[in-house]
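Section 5.1 Outputs to date
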Amino acid sequence: MHLHSLELFGFKSFADKTTFDFHEGITAIVGPNGCGKSNVLDAVRWVLGEQSAKSLRGDEMADVIFNGTDTRKPVGFAEVSLTLSDCAADLAVDWHDVRVTRRVYRDGNSEYLLNKTPCRLRDIQNLFADTGVARAAYSMMEQGKIDMVLSSRPEDRRAVFEEAAGITKYKTQKREALRKLDATEANLLRIGDVIKEVKRQIGSLQRQAGKARRYQALHTDLRILDTQHSRKQLDSLEAELARCRAEIARLGESEETSRARIDMGDNELAERRAVLNKIDRQIADGRTELQRLQSEIGTHQNRIQFNRQHVEELTELIERSRKDIAAAEVKRAQHGKEIDQANALIERISQLLQAKEADLAKVTDLIAELRADGSVHEAKLEALRLSGSKNEKRIAELEDETSGLAIRRDATEENRRDLDDAISEARATRDKVQKELTSAHAATETGRKNLDLLKMKSQTSEETLRQQQQLLAGTEKSLAEIERALTEKESRLEILRQLNEEGEGLAQGSQAVLKGLDDPSRIQPALAGALVSSLDVDPEYVAAIEAALGRNLQAIVLKDAELAPEIITALKRKKLGQTALVLPSLSNSSPKAQAALAQNALAWASEKVKAPDSFAPLIVRLLHNVAIFRDLEAALSFKKHGNDFAAATLAGEFISADGIVFGGSRDALADSLLERRARMSVLSAEYADVCSRRDVLLRKRDEANAIVAKSTNDFQETRRQYESADREQSTWDNRILFLERELRESEQKIDELRSEQTTLTQQIQTADERIAELEEKLASERGALGEQQNQQKLHRAKTKR
């Protein structure tokens, strides 16, 4: 690795651009005190990353910028560039030459460049680690540094030897690794604190969850107790109703009024439920609108962030352009000064040529006078000798002038050839820049097209995502409504099941039997449940089947016939009322054959009841020859023909085979097990239908979630590609600006070199003309001198004569 050159501009006393070329061997810089020798070493230390202004003999970093003099203005920034050659092996890089540049501006901003590419100070420090080339390495020994090293402690001298041994880089890496480990330990401590806090919160949440579970259990118990309490209240009300049946005639009008008030209350309750459902839908719509507005807010916030980043990038580009313009202005001023110096030099050469031409004219006049006076040989012999000596002197001066002009011409010719090489090199650089500029324009055009496509794709993805989110919100809304309906039906089914299990709708005696009387552990296992709890009846025929079964609705199926006397005795002893017990062992007779159905009858009652196989024969016998008619008139018309069949109507009237008509109000039996069973069947079917609809909506929601997730990923990926393409497009735009600036500089440099080449060519032509003129004058002078010598010889001969 070899130090090739050092360029300074605006650094301390180097106001103009100054370049130090370091050739092979030892380079020494000498000069008087105060001429700026130490500034060269300060520049090397500064460009390698010196951060202490005091080490550079200043108070702040802006002090290294040329601050101006009485005749010169201060500059706006300082720049130092250090070039090293043969660096591939020593620095382990792919570059043969490494150029490190550092700039600092008066506003305090600074930047580092590595081979004209912006970089960090750490990149430069890592590059030169363990090479001996650094701001504090042993390769730079300023004044007093050797004495300080020799007189310092061994611990302080150790740094120099470690740098020479090549382990400083590893110690730096070790310190960095230890620093990261310390930071990681601190992070682990913070994570531990967070875990402790979370664990503490988990305990509180577990306690709250336990309270919630206990609340749910108590709430369930409360609901059961409330249902039982309501049942007891209903029993007392039924007893009160039974006591009040004697006063039905007297209270008929009051009953009708009460019924109207109840109907009005039901209507009002239905209206309030409708209003509540409407409010629920409005709340769901509001939540959907809120989600949509939040999504739009997020989208607009992302756009605002993107526009801010774009504005910052444009601001940075404008700032760099302004800096480049300032640098170009400085270069232009410097080139103007060089042109003025060249013009001054040309003016001095022109004045010198005019003076020489005047001297030559004088010599020519003198030779003419000498020739005129040559006829007087004897009288002016001495004058001829003096004139001859003057001519010889003049010839020598002309020869010297001719030799000097030839030397200067050769030097000018050499400079012109150097300019030819420089122009060729500049043209090659210009052609290279033009090619790069053309490729950059092509890449920019391709990038713009790609950017437009990505923008359209991003907009399409965003629109698709918004549509899918709206579809998902609609699905969520429908699913919430289905869940509410499902919960409502499940709750109603649960209540109906509980009422069936408790025998709600049966007589007091039947309910007491189902509860096990005095010994539930022995009686309940012997029961198969209420007879009607296992029957399935079409809801349209429930009233007719109940009328046909009559007291059999209260029947309890008993597995063990031996317990029947004990159950009847217990009911009598506790005065709990009557019950009906079905003993399968006593009902093994086969059913009778079914007669032909009457023409105006709807169906046989036994055909509208579905029962388990064990109860089917019993149900057929209980409903044998019971026909179902639409109304009482049709049933009476059937019985008038003397038929011995029983008849039941859809409204619940019953005509026995003996012709006894049973009918009237059915309020007391409005909540029978058979009707509840029918409602449970309907609710079960509706529940299954709602479940299937919920499953369909769940699948649609999952599909919509998957589509939304995919659309979100596509949108984010498209947006990332768009931002990446936009950054790449900005990079290409900056590259085009940089190449155009380099192209303009190359063109300007070529024009300057051509102008200088033209000037040198004119100087060479002028020198050639002057040399030719001087050679002619020299030949003339030499001829005149020969004639004078011949005349002198003749005069001498004549004189001797």
